[in-house]
Design brief:
2 copies of one chain form a homodimer. Chain A contains 13 helices and 12 strands. By secondary structure, the first copy, chain A, is an alpha/beta fold. Chain A has 3 domains: 44 residues, lambda repressor-like DNA-binding domains (434 Repressor (Amino-terminal Domain)), CATH 1.10.260.40; 127 residues, Response regulator (Rossmann fold, 3-Layer(aba) Sandwich); 128 residues, Response regulator (Rossmann fold). In chain A, strands 2-1-3-4-5-11 form a 6-stranded parallel beta sheet, with helices on both faces. In chain A, helix 10 packs across helix 11. At the A-B interface, helix 4, helix 5, strand 2, helix 6 and helix 11 of A face helix 4, helix 5, strand 2, helix 6 and helix 11 of B. The first copy, chain A, binds a DNA duplex through helix 2 and helix 4.
Chain lengths: 331, 331
DNA sequence: CAACACATTGCAACCGTTTACGACTAAAAA
DNA sequence: TTTTTAGTCGTAAACGGTTGCAATGTGTTG
């Protein structure tokens, strides 16, 4: 049951040097004579010595671990973000400690506190909406935090996003240009920063600006089924242009429309604000707002590495470009 | 820059007790008088004391962290597995340390070693094929390992799977019953345990058994585009029945077939061996082998908790039931 | 040859906990 | 009253490293 077979002390003894010296060669400190280094390395090799990262963490106060906070692993949006984060983290030799907070804010603060107790060197937060307690915890700690694909209303924390308002308006503009007047917004969590503080605002601005009266915002549409089932209401409301934030939802609406004999894009145009495989798979293929999710994650992680290294950030609020990619679900 | 504001020692001093006592109340040890406990808890509360999990880990040799090894976060297959794992891990108060090993085996052993150095209490492995070095490392350590959705040829490690051979044969049987004779297998990694040691074997058995001559195995089909592009070859080979292991690939084939005017299921039947949203979204909807991915992950994690707790496993090789769910892509 | 600079190494404190062990107290048993 | 017993609590040694500082040796310089 001996977990730690061989410690730094064993190596020191075998190599006839002090632990300090072994520690130095393990950490690539170059204040070591070449022959000594080689001698130590030989022993390390022979004994299969592996440093205990927990002990290193305690002594050095750095765990080379970053915490990731997200709502749902199986949501492609977060999966893509995570991939960008993971790749950069790996590149900089950080491990990722995962924490999904489900879809509710319940216990978010406990989850975060737990992460902090594990002494992560930094945190990437990509949940939709930061709760008050969470924010307090983040403000109290000096562990750096970067938001990826979301932001806080006060811009208190560094973040990486796209210009959600502009994207929303551009998408709405396309629908309007195509002659659609009864425009609707379909979102998941209405309280999410991206929705409440961006999409809703942009939508209302747009509607006012173009003197469009029929405001339709549908919330809590998260799954394919939600989208499929929502179609009835959409039809009743005579909506002819839709922007859905998740593409599985958009796909559900599109399929329901097709099944009901409604022609896309003639009678109904659909734009998805996310862009995953699904948008290509559903027929007609969806016009989408292409968010550079991978890049958002990667940039966020890169920023975090700087912060963990006590470097300054050139820009604490990076906004990456999006593109509106037209496809068959709009004219 | 003081990371640790308040330690157990501070609490001890303020509460006029020893560190040992504080430790006891923190860990819920009941050898503490009620009044003492309350006094200590009050101080903990007042000082916002949070235990340092790294120090706990070093002293107790348990990190309440498990390592997760998988190829790709953005592959729904692994995402679903992970969710099952994550939920159970959370339930048992474990955190997850993520390690994706890309699609190549390169450095897999380093990744694993790194995880082990961080003193994870256990590992869940769900990559397709365990490399030799990886296996050696796992055999040398006494950190428990459970395989989820895969297995090793020798059954050396506990695992949770479905009966891939039976599933394969049942699917092939359906195609044959529907009059298809030119049956093909489309897989991602041909060397993966699930394919090499199960699907290929079952396929060849089946073909022999039914005296079918035209063997078609297509490898390296991983993405929607791969599937779409593969269709040409499939057509040339006059294949009329397909089992694809990934549903995005199946969707690609289906869409390519539709675009080429090939009728599904009349001229071509398709079965997907995986079952995510995509199978429902593509038209015609795909007949799928429903793997209980979430459950596989959950059961694997549950087994791991037992192992980490030095409990015996009733069954080290759990096989969960699958179902063949017929839909529009087969008759 | 003395003085000094620099490279190399060891000493020992420290990181923040857990936990065996023993001490102490008060109540129960003899 | 004396001895047991059980319940509480403190002491101090781990856990496996890192790192500031001092010590040593070696070569350089005046």
């Amino acid at each position: 049951m001996q977990k730690q077979e061989v410690t730094i002390y064993d190596v020191a003894r075998e190599a006839k040097v002090s632990m300090a010296t072994v520690s130095r060669v393990v950490n690539g400190n170059n204040n070591v004579r070449k022959e000594t280094r080689e001698k130590v390395l030989a022993v390390i090799d022979r004994l299969h010595y592996q440093p205990n990262a927990v002990a290193q963490g305690l002594a050095s106060k750095r765990t080379t671990t970053v915490g990731l906070i997200m709502p749902d692993l199986t949501n492609m949006h977060f999966a893509e973000l995570s991939k960008g984060i993971d790749d950069i983290a790996t590149m900089y030799k950080y491990n990722i400690l995962l924490s999904s907070v489900g879809n509710t804010l319940l216990n978010e603060d406990q989850v975060i506190q737990n992460l902090l107790n594990k002494q992560v060197d930094g945190v990437i937060y990509m949940s939709n909406l930061m709760g008050e307690k969470a924010q307090e915890i983040f403000e109290r700690t000096n562990t750096p935090v970067v938001l990826a694909g979301t932001a806080d209303a006060n811009q208190d924390f560094p973040s990486v996003t796209i210009d959600y308002k502009a994207a929303e308006k551009e998408a709405l503009g396309l629908l309007l240009k195509n002659g659609k007047k009864n425009l609707a917004l379909v979102v998941g969590d209405g309280k999410a920063y991206v929705n409440k503080d961006n999409r809703f605002v942009a939508y209302k601005d747009f509607m006012e600006e173009h003197k469009l009266k029929n405001v339709h915002i549908y919330e809590d549409a998260r799954t394919y089924e939600d989208g499929y089932n929502l179609f009835d209401k959409i039809k009743t409301d005579k909506v002819d242009g839709i922007i859905a934030t998740r593409d599985v939802v958009a796909a559900g609406i599109a399929n329901a429309a097709s099944d009901a004999g409604v022609k896309i894009p003639e009678d109904l145009e659909i734009i998805s604000a996310a862009s995953t495989n699904v948008a290509k798979i559903v027929r007609p293929q969806l016009t989408t707002v292409q968010q550079p999710l991978y890049d958002i994650g990667a940039v966020a992680m890169r920023m975090l590495t700087k912060l963990m290294n006590d470097e300054e950030l050139d820009d604490a609020h990076v906004i990456l470009p999006y593109t509106l990619k037209k496809s068959a679900s709009t004219k």
